[in-house]
Amino acid sequence: MNRSAISKGFFLAGFAAIAITFLMIDAAFVESAVVKHTPNMRMTDLAGRPDADEVEFPGGERVSVRTMRRLETVAPKLRAPGVYRMPPTLQTKPAATGTRINNATDLAAALKRSDNQTVQLPSGRLATVGQIKFVQPQVEKNLGRSLSAVTQRPSLSGTAIKISQNTTEEEWKSILQKPDNTVLESPNGTRITVGELKQAFRTTPPAEREK
């Protein structure tokens, strides 16, 4: 092979390398093309663009044209009536105040009210009766009993243990170890059983107990 042929071969190889480099640079620019999103932008505006192009939103987030097209395909299903629709009972917001529920009897009575009425749970949270009824089946399954069933309250007549603000910690420890049907009486004459008192402690938030 003469020197002229060798030089020509090197020239052609160099030219090919340069051409490939320019093609790669051009492809890189095509793949990284970014379109600024505008309020009036429609999917038809992206019709001629490759999937690899990106749409940049005002906040700086970028989404590929491929993803935009996929979302456009799914959107009609999401807008279809009845799809991912919140149950009507959960759409009603609780009022600013409601009847307080202190025990199982109050809860059973509340469940007989209309769904749009508001009650206040022992935790202080407000909820509509409809919201409580919505979770009622699952709660009853976990508890193993019906929320609507009212347990007959034991008779509170007869001897009662007097309690007051002066009842000591040691006395309280002794009281809470007594049978649940033991009757306690406050200074104003209100009576409650040890079992009901324990239930109140379990359902009352610590912050309210300290008041």
Q: Key features?
A:
disordered N terminus, 8 helices, alpha/beta, 3-stranded mixed sheet, elongated, 9 strands, 211 residues
How would you describe this structure to a colleague?
This protein has 211 residues and is of the alpha/beta class. It has three domains: 3-79, no CATH class; 94-143, no CATH class; 161-209, no CATH class. Helix content is 44%, strand content 12%. It has helices at 3-31, 65-79, 88-91, 104-110, 129-143, 169-176, 194-203, 206-209, and strands at 34-36, 54-56, 62-64, 99-100, 118-120, 126-128, 161-162, 183-185, 191-193. The strands form three sheets. It has a three-stranded mixed beta sheet. A hairpin with a 5-residue loop joins β2 (54-56) and β3 (62-64). The longest helix has 29 residues, at 3-31. The model is unreliable at 3-31 (pLDDT under 50).
In short:
With 211 residues, the protein is of the alpha/beta class.
Q: What is the C-alpha radius of gyration, as a whole number of Å?
A: 37 Å
Q: What does the main sheet amount to? A: 3 strands, mixed
* Major sheet: arrangement of strands: 1-2-3
How many structural domains?
3
The helix count comes to 8
Shape descriptor reads elongated
